[in-house]
Amino acid sequence: MAPRSKQCTKRAPSTEELAEKAKISGWERSKLSTQDNKMLKKMGLLNKGVMKMPGDESSPHPPIGFRVTFVDFLIRGISVPLHEFLRGLLFIYRIQLHQLNPNSLLHISIFITLCECFLGIHPHWGLWKRIFYLRRNNLKNVIYNVGGVCICVRPEVRYFDVKFTDSVQGWRRKWLYIKDESSDAQEYGLAPFDAAEDIQRRKSWDAEASAEEKAATDALIARIQELQNTDGAQLSGVQIIAHFLRIRVQPLQARKRPRWMYSGAEDTDRVSEDLPLKDLEKLVRHFTSLSKNHQVPSSCHVEPFSGSHALPENHQSPTSLPPLPEGGEVDERAVVTDDSADEEEEEPESHGPAPTSTSNTLVLSEDRRVASEASPPPQVDPEASTPVPSPRAPKPKNAKTGAAGKQELATGNMPAPILDDPLMKELVNLGSLFTGFHDEAATLREALRCAKERTADQEAKLKASEEARKRAEKDAAGVEDLRQRLQAAEDALSDKEAKQVERENDIVTRLETQSRRFSRKMGEQYTLSKESDDRLLDTLDILELNCDLARKCITSVWTALKRVFPHFFPKDTQPEIFAQLA
């Protein structure tokens, strides 16, 4: 057994120290945009019963039963209940979810999708150890806690050449609370959030596959090489990313069935309908370094296993999950070295861009600053680095087994028998309950304050509504008076119109009578070639024609009398007026 690392007694940090630690670790007030909410809703991940949006807190204080996650984690495959493989990785590496970065989560999603959809197996712990190892994502004198651990591909392994985005801008500012859930296959879910837990490199980060695991996974390694190098049917990391986004099954969520049994649009593990092609391509480009000039593959060159493309007959699907230790923590969870020894392995500080994935190590960083720790992983004793598989039961994470076989606490040298004392257990339970109730009380106080503000706002709105109602009642009498006056005006107008019609009819009758009398005297009667619908106009037209006839007759008489006048009255002056002449 490897010797224990140095442990020192820890005191409870003060409020000022916690605030300073949160500042150094990278926590800041969450800022989720409307676009983030729309994307989560499109992807079927915005579940109000499972998620809670943080308030004004500058660092996470999740309610009881809730954990901390990020928008970029959710869109890369995280959902609750958590997949047992990811849960085991977090436990065996002794890291919290927030200490990974988005590209590391994407590594795990790609690996699980590769195993289930293209190898036809459950995610394999031995295969994982042959491909990946962990490194800290920090420089000297710079502490990263949020996203301070990155998953790297071993230099000697030829793995998918995925060009991840060098820097996922602003992902640390987009955190929220997600309710912890467990599936039938899990006895507990995600570990409680602990902002005070530091990142320390451990032996499990460099754990290599044992001889038995290498023998069991040689065929899988060969199949991965075949998938990458088959002419005309090469499988790429981008194709794998596009595939799990296209089928709408979260890789890092516990599921009822493995994805080699995926049944299409009616599959019960789907979280949403198909994404629009535009949104899918946007996500793929957001995850990788593909530009708009690069085409996002519409399908995989290798047909993935599914309900319509079943596994071959006699296909073996071995299961090998990261083991959970029993009987206290084993040396797998021990710190490899102290901080000074760890810094000796890191390269000098550099501000250049972080190297992206090639066939070698993937070192991922938001700030493009990486302590690459590029030296090959040290050879460790498999028995000392890999714990024995055990039942899935949660154990105290601060418990540690010493070289003399005595169980100690990480916060001191308290012997195990004291912990077995019923009173001590009761005190520990009461302390845990007090902490939970204290956090819940703070949450309830904040909720009560918000409720009071909403109540005051509703009271102001109710008062304004009551005043508006009173004004409306006062105006009602005026409205009724206006209605009555309008009705009286309409009645008067109707009477006037009736009288006007009656007067017009009388005029028409009189004109028609005059026209008939004139026609009898003159011996001629006119008719209109085009009659209108207005009797008055038609009568006036006929009367005008009769008047024209009378004028013509009078003019003819006048002309005739002027001609004969000189013959009868030669010495008289001809008069100018017809009446004088007559």
From TrEMBL:
Stretch list, region Disordered: 1-22, 292-416
Top-rank taxon, per record: Eukaryota
Coiled coil: 441-499
Keyword Mitochondrion: no
Coiled coil is among the record's keywords: yes
Domain Transposase (putative) gypsy type: 68-135
Keywords: Coiled coil
A Pfam family this chain is assigned to: Transposase_28
InterPro entries attached to this UniProt entry: Transposase_28 (IPR007321)
Acidic residues biased stretches: 339-348
Name of the protein this chain belongs to: Transposase (putative) gypsy type domain-containing protein
Lineage: Eukaryota, Viridiplantae, Streptophyta, Embryophyta, Tracheophyta
